Amino acid sequence: MSKSFYITTPIYYVNDVPHIGHAYTTIAADVMARYKKLCGQKVFFLTGTDEHGQKIERTAREAGKEPIELADEVVVRFADLWKVLNISNDDFIRTTEQRHKVSVNKIFKTIQDKGDIYLGEYEGWYDVRDEAYITDTQYEEFMEMPEAKRPIIERVKEKSYFFKLSEYQDRLLEHYRNHPEFIRPDNRRNEVISFVEGGLRDLSISRTTFSWGIPIESDTEHVIYVWFDALTNYITAVGYPNDKEMMNEYWPADFHFVGKDILRFHTVYWPAFLMSAGLELPKTVFAHGWWTIEGEKMSKSLGNVIDPYRIADEFGVDVFRYFLLREIPFGQDGDFSKDSVIGRINGDLANGLGNLVSRSLGMVEKYFDGQVPEALQAASIDEKVINKSSETLNQYVGFMDEVAFSKALFSIWEFITYVNKYIDDTAPWSLAKKGQTDRLAAILYNCCESIRIISILISPFMPQTAADIWAKLGLDTDIVSNGVESAKEWGLLNSKSKVAKGSNLFSRY
Ligand code: MSP
């Protein structure tokens, strides 16, 4: 078996409750984690919360709370949401945990001992919302924006430790060149390359004008810059610095899934810190796009923030998961609207998958007393279904390995449409009327077998629906332990299996 697979989401700020953007990255990472498990790999899937920094401190104070009180409240909203959305994370890290403080100080000291950190003074602009230092040019650009849309930019002048980022320009560029898979998709890689080619300035990695952060052990007047702190979560959770065995098993990460807005932190700062600390770099940082809401940017002031709890409650968890990954290619921007969710439910889900399952199992109940019949009398049209199934499987594996979720779903749905058409073309009801039972049996066996394969393929995306279909087919094994391999082989469905059509998988709107 190949090496273990390690995938992460960004850790989310606790200044605000979760919205669709947070749900999107986490669901996408969950799909990948579940897919890798289905392929038989040992998986470690991490998510968590980013709890330090000026933004959190300020939000807490404004609400008359201690920062840790705010964090303790909001973290529950995230952890609960992941349960509701059926997220299979193996760990949930909070940056306020002791294990993380140890880890951050260790990597800081390692980099310092290497000679890459010096004490100086930072004078310049700071964007509190993004917790980012910004240049004079960026500042001027922000000032041209209408006031309501402008981020809070502050002038900062304080003693600070600096990381010698400027010395890593060539090594970073060389890494991007030698590892094109490090930044995906390609257009994002080009953006990062031109940014780094433009020259890198040393990075301030500590703050002295507020205290909500991890103090530097050797100079407690400073708290460590929140992005230095946050990025380190990815190694803390796999045992850095004390659990060497776990680090060996999972580090370097296979994927950091992030939104396009935080790509620079992950592909410039983070690899430079790791290089300096003598640690390996993650294999791939994959940046996804942003959701707009009915054509508008999502924002509190517009009042159009999408609450994932509500969508999941209104339409169902698996519908929400399916929609997010089917609607836009992973990596591109897209638009969310209830109408498009309903369009997917009525079309792909109810008319496509739901209909295939209910009509196939309904006929097995009607004509064979609910027992999957034996495929007695084959015909050439059946071969086409079998070929289509293996073609679908190959496409699916290829697309999943490329992180092309919507294409993978598209190929499953082509197969669903194909099998629905096979039923229309062979008209089992008229074979039943004519008493051609052997032929009828073969067709219904093929339908059930197709459904078995489809449920394996959709299981990373729609785990509950896949399990429901599995149960309807009378199967009592675990889909994941059967694995993607068992979708490659046609005919594994036992013809004695007892099906139960039950209620519809999806209701129409
Ligand atoms: N705390 C940092 C990440 C640190 S990782 C070491 C952070 N947190 S966040 O809560 O602000 O955002 C987390 C993620 O949500 C980002 O990946 C961001 O791209 C994503 N999204 C926020 N709004 C979004 C949309 N409207 N659409 C899609 N994703 C969006 O950044």
What does this structure look like?
This protein is α/β, with parallel strands linked by helices and 509 residues long. Helix content is 52%, strand content 15%. The protein has a six-stranded parallel sheet with strand order 3-2-1-12-13-7, sandwiched between helices. It has a four-stranded antiparallel sheet with strand order 5-4-6-8. Strands 9-11-10 form a three-stranded antiparallel sheet. A hairpin with a 4-residue loop joins strand 4 and strand 5. It is elongated, with a radius of gyration of 26 Å. The chain binds 5'-O-[(L-methionyl)-sulphamoyl]adenosine (MSP).
Tell me the radius of gyration: 26 Å
Indicate the proportion of strand residues: 15-25%
Percent helix? 40-55%
The low-confidence runs, each spanning 5 or more residues with pLDDT under 50, are none
Shape: elongated
- Strand line-up of the largest beta sheet: 3-2-1-12-13-7
How confident overall, as mean pLDDT?
Answer: 96
Characterize the largest beta sheet: strand count, sense, and whether it forms a barrel.
6 strands, parallel
Structural class: alpha/beta
How many H/I helical runs? 21
**Counted beta strands:** 16
Ligands (ions, cofactors included): 5'-O-[(L-methionyl)-sulphamoyl]adenosine
